[in-house]
User: Fold this.
Amino acid sequence: MITRFDKAVRGDLKIVTCSWIVGVSMLLPLIPRSAMSHSLEGNGNWTWQNALPQGNALYDVKPVDAQSVLAVGEVGTVLRTSNFGASWQVDHRVADFGGVLRSIASPEPSVFVVVGDSGIVLRSTDGGSNWSRRKLNNGSIGLRGVSFFSTLDGVAVGDSGRIYATADQGVNWALQQTGTLPQTLHGVFTRPNGTAWACGNDGVILKSTNRGASWQFLSNQNTRDLYRVFFRNDSLGWCTGELGTILKTVNGGGGGAGWATQAGNTIASLYSISFTDPLNGAIAGGSSSGGVLIKTSDGGVNWNAPIVVTAFPLRSLAFLNNLVGWYAGERGGIASTATGINGWVLKSRGIRKDILSFAAIDTQTAFAVGQEGAILVTHTSGTSWDTVASGTRKWLNGLSFESSSVGWAVGDSGAIVRTATAGASWSVVQSPVFQSLNGVRSLQGVVFAVGNRGTIIRTTDNGVNWLSLTVDTSIGFSAVDFVDNLHGWATASNGWVFRTTNGGDSWELPNNMSSGPLFSTSFVTRDIGWVVGTVGRIFKTTDGGVTWVNQRAGQVRSTLYSVFFLDTLRGYVSGIDGVVLRTTDGGENWDILSTISRTSMRVVYFSTPDIGWVAGENGVILQTRNGGGTPPPPPPPVVQQSVKSLPVFPNPSKTVVYFPFSLAAPAHVLVELYNMLGQRVATLLNEERTPERVCECVCTPASTFDCVMFDASRFASGAYLVRMRVNGKQEVQKMITLH
Assistant:
């Protein structure tokens, strides 16, 4: 195929005209898009359609009896079954908490204590049906693990080496002294005799013999982060961690023997360990390649080569007895066994491929496309989704139906697929280009597709012949929309919005906004439309794209991937971290709809004012049947953050070093230690802090400053940089250690 292009630039108006050269395409099997899965705020506003029973990451699982289990995870998720996974009770934002729940303890039957981010402690005394809530330390620190010695006494561990103890089954908690430990503690394990162990970042292992009242450091040569500690008795125990780390002790972790490294034969992070009996046990973990189990049949003397058991990393593994066990992990994955360590059955289901585009024919039939040529279809308004053969493994980025029968999808490397059977079958269409195509719009027998390197293609005969145009090879088009066969718009990677008023024969750039990448556009008339992009940008035009007005939604600064308007007043936007916005007044005001997932929502689509979907990464699909529900009250105004730090002291130092700082408002504080080669040596602080918190040591000036304390003797003599980051602001101090 040969194409001729003529480009003219006239002031701010950039016009591209083309002479179309006709090419012939061959019809091959077409590929549909994969569906997305998403979860949003409860109250019946949104329901999971893929994955099932839900798709939030699960961080801990606790078998209750032979039929029952409780699991917790992201967005305040609590997942329960009492019939071995045949049906599930799914609750999000339990006790109005939307952070990550990380660890479960059950001091007695029907009583659960769960800890998580922002110092949250949830407690249920009726098997998980109802929950009470409290926050420790004003929510300024995260909690990572919890365990009980008895029905009343327990401990919880978390960020900055914090350890809390309870003597009344988790109703009240007291901070225990842990010295100057800056590392995050991830795991804790208790024995009925009052002995406890905790492990955390940089290989830290602690032990208490008095129910958590005091703790001692255990000698350990490992410096990798440790996530879980487990003991079979007072002497025999293990810690597992990053990069396949397995440490074993045979004397309670103390004395000369200390901890010995065992071969895990993997570089996956290892998050959990459990035994069915004295000989048989397993360690669970994973990476982006999937979830692994590492088994032992000799009581942990040796560990077998890892077995990849799932497509998702495993976060937790627990056995009730020598037969019944559960594991859970990322993407809401959960599985059980009733026959011991080798008989696992996956209880979660769904398509796990990223969804990049969505279209509905009516309120019952909808399609989603995405990763590796996946196409999902529902004919039951999403109560069930099936896959359709696509004929390609290329990612599909755009989807459009021009009628109830005819639809098109486009994707990577110029992929084009078509259906003329209402999505029952798809055929691959020979493409006139090799550049990736990112958006498609079909209507009234005309199909437009746009893509990388300024590519725009058009067909009026079902893909037999294509007209091809290159607007500007320095840009990539992300989306295209038409309101009729003449008037269309295309968004670009550099923030430009091109338009055509003659059916694509020429394209003009009336206004170069240069606002950063734009990802989606939605027009409802020849004059009124919207585009969205990075940093929460929402732009509206009322003159067909000649001029644009920024309609940014309050404090939203997330990347926005998709915009969909039903008419000139009602519209929706979705984006990264589960953001979903709604307007009922043409974008003058935007409501932030409550969500129950942090999954990036790549697409939002509504078939009626009430029935709509959001979908995205890992195959998440969520539906609403009431327009997204009532929005939550607006958040309190954000206080402009300021931070002030004082020099580290003493400097030089041989032992404890203090790094004082003060905050004007609550903020996340990250303090790291770097050597002079720019390599990170340690993370000294990584948590939420409040202005009310003051230094717990002898620090100057008096009580107006918080501080980070750390032991300089742990690091070799030399010069270092202490770097603090707070809401984008950075403070760097130089320090010297002398030994």
